[in-house]
Design goal:
By secondary structure, this protein is an alpha+beta fold. It contains 30 helices and 30 strands. This is Aminopeptidase.
Length: 944
């Protein structure tokens, strides 16, 4: 297929008709949450008005939906007719109005009837607040609801199947180049109200019975529960009735109208488009194993909920979240459930298993028990993220998932949680924007980290017993943290006292260790990466473990210390091999040591077998050093000296921590020091490259070794490793010459990237055609990653046009853009493109706030003052077009650029001195020199 800029211009000729929608809010998730400058509209109502009161409670819904996936007589395509009847009651006297929620629908009629005698309750004109989406039905003067009496609210309405992946929305897949439309749902957090009037908050649990009037035989229908009846309703249509659900929250209702097929066994089924059925076997097999393992661990069989005799999992082409835990009908992005070993990487396979485990865990932690309101989202998502790793480990014990958890989850959330802008796990939210924002790394990662910490404190067996009790006691209820703490306290009376402060306070501490002849003194102070001299006096219960030799790292049962300062007595402390705090990084904090202790740690890391330091503590040391240097606690020269030990590291977890730290550092290296930095990268990766080699994984190698190879090859090729580049280009040329023999999936990312970076436009067009014709969503992601390595303005423009077009689905646009700007050589090209084609970009993404987001993520990586000036001039010239919100956002991004520049200049001498010394061959002899480390550190420790 011939690909050119003109082709895309034609494809996008209709963008002008979308320009009227620029006032809408961008739906793109932050590309780089740590540096994304969110522009959130100020609440336009009183905060309490966004919440329903507790006067009236639903008990049951009868819902009938009639979708139109194509225009019919008198009906527009992508609309639906709805009829919902809600049984409600109140326990209060004198209730004179009913409040519930609706959105994006036209109510054509409604009524309130007392069920006992079918008498109509007289009402006044309804009141609808478009900002809060609350519908108020006032009763007539002098009329009130009778306590403990059932009433029936009936609504007839017309709804819309939008294309924004929320509510009951439209999606499609391509068959022979033609779109095949389908309807699916995503109701979390506040979008069930788009499909039916409801009490759309998690505490309002009720039962639901759904009927769908759909075209047959074109479409099949699926929902939370099995079908109990299907009968012809009119010519070419069938009315399908589903079983009554358990009592559950409105956001867990789900239904799909699609020409899907099912692969099923043992009460589990995978739903997918027909062409993807050959990609469903792995998720079916793994899902069955995971469901059984989690049932056994929790000791509450899924089938013990009588309304749920089976579990369906559906692959949806367009899906805003990674997956969704709708009770009995789990929905997924295709990349998170469809798998073939010849077209998906090992890491993609693990991702699929882990996401399935996450969603299955929600069937208890979220569905059976549900957080009472989104301010405690972590009660749902923290548990699901915990089982995403430790549930998957029950059936895949060889994947070293605990090692991955520590680096990806614990160390990952520390980045966000070290900023002033962070928030506690339990945090008030009211508006839709606030609710959406709470679904972040604090609720997910930090929630899971706290659970792991308590598991090690209570012991795994006791922790498991407590959680089993928690589930059984609170089944079918909505829960607050007190319910969890009560269950944990029953098995350890200190559990709440130790855990609760971590959930209600933002951030985490930096623990500083100083040594003396009689032991070690430990102090804590909140770690704020950009404010090392702050005066925040927050304290946490500190979970302490430590090791002075290889045999002591196995003790992960912490002693909690409740004071700001604590002494650990130890005879002959000055003669220990080292002192390392926080065995296997079970506790959630960073550690800084005095100069002498850092010297001992450095000596150990540079000795045989790394002095016996546990692999997770090596990963901890790597992550802490990068971030202590970034926070002006440890000089960069000292940190980089100690981290030279990585030249001999062969384990995945420390290397993953190193890659994370090096990624951040690479964005702050002064432009004139790039070549020196490249020499450094090639040096520390040299042995790792020789260890993993440019080759496909062997059948017997450890899974994490395969992952390490992918990281090592990526960094080696990116920084000009000759052998890596030569091998990757040769493999790409072979594939280009004979596309029927594919590149091994675990090598594709680096092969595609290097092939595009070193190739021609013909190579680019070849790979893009592979994207357009691939039937595998996982393969399409690998191709987008590879195409992000293009280096000319012409190719970058084609790629940016593609992202703005419908060829790249909305769910993938943000990631595709990130792949491009992670290649620093593209940044001027991307900046130029956005300035010339801002209207196309805004139309393709929904608003000019997406243009602001694109510029801000670019500015976070930029190192060019001239490019900054060009962007500044652009927004001044185009202020009216951008709009005030987007303009202000980019202004903030320009301020952030200055902050980053100041950081670079402040640390340049330290980093440059290290890099020059190393490039001149003088660094290697002093990396383990204790006196050198002492001299560099002593003043810093004293200052802190």
């Amino acid at each position: 297929m011939k690909l050119s800029r003109m082709t895309f211009t034609k494809l996008l000729a209709l963008v002008a008709i979308v320009l009227c929608s620029f006032a809408s809010t961008s739906r793109a998730s932050p590309l780089d949450p740590e540096r994304y400058l969110l522009v959130e509209a100020e609440p336009r109502a009183q905060l309490e008005d966004y919440r329903l009161n507790d006067d009236v409670w639903p008990t049951h819904y009868d819902i009938e939906i009639k979708p139109y996936l194509e225009a019919e007589t008198g009906k527009q395509a992508f609309t639906f007719d709805g009829n919902t009847k809600i049984t409600v009651k109140t326990e209060k006297q004198g209730v004179a109005q009913i409040k519930l929620q609706i959105a994006r629908m036209e109510i054509t009629s409604w009524s309130v009837v007392r069920k006992s005698d079918n008498n109509v309750v007289q009402t006044l004109t309804e009141i609808y607040d478009a900002e809060t989406e609350v519908l108020t039905i006032p009763l007539a003067s002098g009329v009130t609801l009778q306590a403990n009496t059932e009433y029936l609210l009936s609504f007839t309405y017309i709804g819309n199947m939008d294309d924004d992946m929320h509510g009951f929305y439209r999606s499609y897949y391509l068959l022979n180049g033609e779109k095949v439309w389908l309807g699916s749902t995503q109701f979390q957090q506040t979008h069930a109200r788009r499909a039916f009037p409801c009490f759309d908050e998690p505490r309002f649990k009720a039962t639901f019975q759904l009927k769908i009037n759909h075209k047959t035989p074109q479409y099949s229908v699926y929902s939370n529960t099995p079908i109990v009846n299907a009968s012809p309703s009119e010519s070419g249509r069938t009315l399908t009735t589903f079983g009554i659900t358990p009592s559950m929250s409105s956001y867990l209702v789900a239904f799909i109208v699609a020409p899907y097929e099912i692969n099923q066994r043992e009460q589990m089924g995978i739903l997918a488009r027909p062409q993807a059925q050959n990609q469903t076997q792995y998720s079916l097999d793994e899902g069955i194993k995971l469901l059984k393992a989690l049932e056994d661990w929790i000791d509450y069989p899924y089938s013990s909920v009588p309304e749920m005799p089976r579990m369906y999992m559906a692959a949806v082409p367009d899906f805003s979240a990674g997956a969704m835990e709708n009770w009995g009908l789990l929905t997924y992005r295709e990349t998170n459930i469809l798998y073939r070993s010849d077209d998906s990487t090992s890491l993609q396979q693990q991702r699929i298993a882990a996401v399935i485990s996450h969603e299955i865990a929600h069937q208890w932690f979220g569905d059976l028990l549900t957080c009472e309101w989104w301010d405690v989202t972590w009660l749902n998502e923290g548990f699901a993220r915990f089982y995403q790793y430790f549930g998957t480990a029950l059936v895949e014990p060889s994947w070293d998932l605990e090692h991955q958890f520590v680096v990806e989850q614990l160390q990952g959330v520390m980045q966000m949680d070290s900023l002033v802008s962070t928030h506690p796990m339990t945090h008030p939210v009211y508006t839709q924007a606030q609710v959406s924002g709470i679904f972040d790394n604090i609720s997910y990662n930090k929630g899971a980290v706290m659970l792991r910490m308590m598991q090690h404190f209570m012991t795994p067996a006791t922790f498991q017993t407590a959680l089993r009790s928690y589930i059984k006691e609170n089944a079918y209820k909505s829960v607050r943290p007190a319910h969890l703490f009560d269950a944990l306290n029953r098995y350890n009376p200190n559990a709440r006292m130790y855990m609760e402060p971590w959930t209600v306070q933002p951030g985490y501490p930096l623990v500083t260790v100083t040594s003396n002849a009689n032991g070690f003194t430990i102090t804590q102070k909140r770690f704020l990466v950009n404010e090392p001299t702050h005066t925040d006096a927050t304290m946490w219960p500190l979970p302490l473990t430590y090791a002075t030799n290889a045999n002591e790292f196995s003790n992960t049962t912490p002693t909690f210390v409740m004071t700001a300062s604590y002494n650990i007595p130890m005879a002959d402390a000055s003669n220990v091999q080292y002192f390392i705090l926080n065995n296997q990084q079970v506790g959630y904090y960073r550690v800084n040591y005095d100069a002498a202790l850092w010297g001992k740690i450095s000596n150990a890391l540079h000795s045989e077998n790394f002095g016996g330091i546990h692999v997770l503590n090596r990963a901890q040391l790597v992550d802490d050093l990068f971030n202590l240097a970034r926070g002006d606690i440890v000089p960069y020269g000292t940190a980089l000296d100690i981290l030279e030990y990585l030249k001999h590291e062969t384990e995945y977890a420390p290397w993953l921590a190193a890659v994370n730290g090096l990624t951040t550092l690479s964005r702050r290296i002064h432009a004139e020091d790039e070549e020196l930095f490249a020499i450094h990268i090639l040096d520390i990766f040299a042995k790792a490259y020789d260890t993993v080699k440019f080759q496909a994984p062997s059948p017997t190698e450890r899974r994490v070794f395969t992952y390490m190879r992918q990281n090592v090859l990526k960094w080696a090729c990116n920084y000009g490793h000759e052998a890596c580049s030569k091998a990757a280009v040769a493999e790409f040329e072979r594939f280009y010459a004979n596309p029927s023999v594919k590149v091994h999936p675990d090598l594709r990312q680096v092969v595609y990237c290097e092939g595009i970076r070193k190739g021609t436009q013909a190579h680019f067009e070849f790979l893009w055609n592979q994207y357009l014709t691939s039937n595998m969503a996982t393969e399409q992601i690998l191709i987008l990653q590879g195409m992000g390595c293009a280096s000319t303005y012409e190719l970058i423009s084609i790629m940016m046009d593609a992202i703005a077009s419908e060829h790249v689905r909305s769910q993938d646009k943000s990631n595709a853009y990130t792949y491009i700007i992670n290649n620093q050589y593209t940044l001027p090209h991307v900046s130029r493109y956005l300035q010339l084609n801002h209207a196309i970009w805004a139309a393709g993404h929904g608003s000019y706030l997406s243009v602001a987001s694109a510029f801000n993520n670019l500015l976070a990586r930029l190192k060019s003052d001239s490019e900054r000036d060009t962007i500044s001039a652009f927004i001044e010239t185009n202020k009216n077009t951008l709009g005030q919100a987007a303009y202000d956002s980019i202004k903030n991004g320009l301020t952030e650029y200055e902050t980053n520049k100041q950081f670079t200049m402040r640390n340049r001498d330290e980093i440059s001195t290290f890099l020059k010394k190393k490039a001149n061959g003088g660094a290697g002899a002093v990396f383990a020199n204790v006196s050198m480390i002492v001299s560099l550190l002593v003043l810093v420790v004293c200052r802190w």
